[in-house]
């Protein structure tokens, strides 16, 4: 099963950025928990740096994720310093694969947050400890600025939901969705899946799949991205919000 590490920035004695009534350590913890729920529902195994208001050194965060053998490290933050917009960071020297992952996450997040008037500050690189010391692909997300008009956006539950949804969609794009709950029946057509007729086999629990096509009640899922696969009932598979 694909393992995702969620690193809620700051905590305990380290509040992170503050402004307009927002406290970074609290905001990012709420987001981290929401992300945890959504990623677990989508079939991922999730590890967390912290699930309450505790302080951890940066190296300790990376160490925990390395011990968990995560496939991806997501560090959640917001910004201060007078700017506006969303940005994300990967380490200064990374394999091309990490840059691709950043592109995928960035694209999915931006697609869902620009309607909130959150600006796109672009994809950045930085020598941050959590990016440097993690053994897996790692990305740090800055959700907006707490000390400008971005604060109103950050406070919006709809923005928070869309921000999370963007990350989850990006992770699914990268790793596919794990079918975890059920053995889903495989059918040649969407109608067959609905009627339950002409079953041509089963998709085992834990299979990694990508969604090729979607109808109201069914999904066409495939193990090879971009190539049509088999039809299954949505109620048979566990792919997050579907
Ligand atoms: Zn921060």
UniProtKB/TrEMBL annotation:
A GO molecular-function descriptor: N-acetylmuramoyl-L-alanine amidase activity
UniProt keyword Hydrolase present: yes
Protein name as it appears in the record: N-acetylmuramoyl-L-alanine amidase
UniProt EC number: 3.5.1.28
Keyword Hydrolase: yes
Origin: domain of life: Bacteria
Pfam families: Amidase_3 (PF01520)
SMART domains xref list: Ami_3
Keywords: Hydrolase
């Amino acid at each position: 099963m694909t393992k995702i590490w969620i690193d809620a920035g700051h905590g305990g004695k380290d509040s992170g950025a503050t402004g307009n009534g927002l406290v970074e350590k609290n905001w990012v913890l709420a987001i981290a928990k929401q992300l945890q729920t959504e990623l677990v529902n989508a079939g991922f195994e999730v590890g967390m740096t912290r699930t309450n208001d505790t302080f951890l050194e940066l190296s300790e965060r990376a160490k925990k994720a390395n011990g968990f053998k995560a496939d991806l490290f997501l560090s959640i933050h917001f910004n201060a310093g007078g700017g506006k917009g969303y940005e994300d960071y990967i380490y200064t020297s990374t394999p091309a694969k990490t840059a691709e992952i950043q592109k995928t996450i960035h694209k999915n997040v931006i697609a869902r947050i620009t309607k909130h008037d959150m600006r796109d500050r672009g994809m950045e690189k930085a020598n941050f400890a959590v990016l440097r010391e993690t053994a897996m692909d790692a990305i740090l997300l800055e959700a907006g600025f707490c000390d400008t008009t971005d604060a109103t956006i950050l406070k919006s539950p709809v923005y928070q939901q869309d921000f999370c949804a963007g990350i989850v969609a990006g992770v699914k794009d990268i790793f596919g969705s794990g079918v975890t709950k059920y053995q889903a029946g495989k059918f040649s057509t969407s109608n067959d899946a609905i009627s339950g007729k002409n079953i041509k086999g089963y998709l085992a629990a834990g299979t990694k799949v990508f969604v090729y096509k979607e109808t109201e009640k069914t999904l066409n899922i495939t193990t090879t991205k971009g190539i049509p696969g088999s039809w299954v009932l949505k109620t048979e598979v566990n792919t997050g919000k579907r």
